[in-house]
Amino acid sequence: MAQQKKGPVFAIFFCQQLDARQDINRRCLEKEFGSHIRFFPIPCSGRIEPLHLLKAIESGADMAYLLTCGEGDCRYGEGNIRAKKRVNYAQGLIEEIGLERKRIVLISKKIDAPVSIDILVREAIAGNDMLPIQWNGHNLQVDD
Amino acid sequence: MPGRYHIHTKVVPNRFPAITRSGVIAWEEGCLKCARCVKKDCVYKVYEKRGLDTRQMLDSLDSMCKDCFRCVQNCPNRLIHKGINPVYRALGDSYWTPEIISSLWFQAETGRIPVSGGGYGGPFSGKGFDAMWTDMSEIVRPTRDGIHGREYISTTVDIGRKLMALEFAPDGGLISQIPPLIEIPLPIMFDILPWSPPDDKIIKAFLHGARSLGTFVCIEESYLQHDMEEFLSHIILLIEGIPHHRDKGFFQMLRMVEIPDSGETKALQEWLKEINSELIVMVKLPLSAEAPERVFQLATDGVEVIHLVADEYGMEWGGNPFFIADRMKDIHLFLVEKGIRDQVTLIGGGGIAMAEHMAKLIICGADAVTIDIPLLVAMECRVCRRCKEGIPCPVELEGIDPLWGAMRITNLIGGWHNQLLEILGAVGMREVRRLRGEMGRSMFFEELEQEFFATMGNSR
């Protein structure tokens, strides 16, 4: 079995437009992080609902990221603009229950050249300084 | 008259929501708050029954939607779209396509033949099995009251060596020694998987499935566990050499053994036959350009069954590889020319992904086929091959309930069996044994193209 890193659990939602080879490119991260990372490709970032982000955190993720294409790049017109509003709404909801807003992160990437999802995600989680969520003093269970 | 073979199927639900070809993208922003929202008018009530599978973050909208596009067309502010699902597009590869995988899932879930009702929209020829067509010009005859009608269509095949003639003594006594023969009710056996997650439960699902279907599962000797011994009559045990740690009584309980083709093949076959003369010994031979000569040699040496294997894409090994169907044709015709085709049983495996592939390989000369990856797909495998790289299986195949897996396999094979009956009916045959090598019931695209364009000076 792949060697797995310890630390926060990441849920990565991302727009399919970002990387056509996402299923192949994300495997090195899946191998490295094991059950500490989960990828959820979506047809358009505008498909995301606050419920998806909240459910990800409820199900054990410490950080939920949404990676979208840059404004003006959405093939459905305004998907990424709408996604931004929903992320803001979800951030407000987790703040109300005492979690930090920055546990839900939106990253927009202007698509000028082909990007690899693993590079994008590495860049995103490299800047993370959040620790695993303490629920009633206990961390959620993760298969280590 | 023996009873009809029938596979009983029932709906076996998925553990994970099925991945669908398209996804609904429905935005709330900009909603005109119509008095009657198009979402309320959905005939399948997908918006009302909406739910979220948190393991995969899959919205039930996608799996319940039947692509009628009513909501997409009727929303006055165009807030509902449908887009290609990226997870669907990432299923499998260029051979094990998302369409094949989702069709196998449907069959494993329902046991029914996948019928879209929308006609066939794909190309009329392609590579591999798509380069041959079955000739269904007899479709009016035996199928007049359906595949389960009055005229029984048999899918039984014989596995073993056959005598070309019986010899009798002057007193009428039989001199010929009758070789052992096994009848299986359908021309499908289960092969060793090319890759899989930890597979204890998967193999047990195969064993339960094979027992209920009346067929065989090939298992490596080192994988055999004590609790599998109740299935010995449905196991083809693959042994690499003489297994000294097994007592001879063990081999008397087996019906079939497989040995790899090597310099030891003859000695190993004789050793096994000495212990159990009723045992059928199958020789596993990787397909290559040398296969026709080697098959001929093995057949003249007295081998009963030859298992010809290609890789998971149906390609043989070696430089300039042939597709399994083309090489099977070569081997079959070579044995016909030598006059020994009927003595030996040929089983082909590798790259069989659909029911039609099974029928096509039989038309090319195989007596029966072995399948592997479709059995995993029946248990929701996505053919992502993450298990090969040591990444956890996204559908947790290692944790399946073997009985659930067996029922899914039974459903899949039930669907394939019905499709085989449809093909046999449509080509005007009442038993699959007659389909073997019946190339007159098929058309090969390359041959047709050559024939057609030759008059125009095209030598392609």
- Characterize the quaternary organization of these chains: heterodimer
The best one-word shape of chain A is globular
Helix content of chain B: 25-40%
Figure out the total of helices of chain B. Answer: 13
Q: Strand-residue fraction of chain A?
A: 15-25%
- What characteristic shape of chain B results from the CA principal axes? globular
- Domain module tally of chain A: 1
SS-derived structural category of chain B? alpha/beta
Mean pLDDT of chain A: 84
SSE order of chain A: EHHEHEHEH
- CATH-defined topology of chain A: Rossmann fold
Query: What is the highest CATH level, the class of the largest domain in chain B?
Result: Alpha Beta
Topology:
The complex is a heterodimer of chains A (144) and B (460).
Chain A lengths: L9 E6 L6 H4 L1 H7 L3 E6 L7 H9 L4 E7 L9 H18 L7 E6 L7 H10 L18
Parallel strand pairs in A: 1-2, 1-3, 3-4
Helix pairs in contact in A: 3-4
Chain B lengths: L21 E5 L25 E2 L4 E2 H5 L5 H5 L5 E5 L1 H4 L8 H13 L21 E3 L22 E4 L20 E4 L3 E3 L9 H14 L3 E4 L14 E4 L9 H6 L2 E5 L4 H11 L4 E7 L4 H10 L4 E5 L14 H15 L6 E5 L5 H9 L4 E4 L1 H6 L23 H25 L15 E3 H10 L6
Parallel strand pairs in B: 8-15, 9-10, 10-11, 11-12, 12-13, 13-14, 14-15
Antiparallel strand pairs in B: 1-4, 2-3, 5-16, 6-7
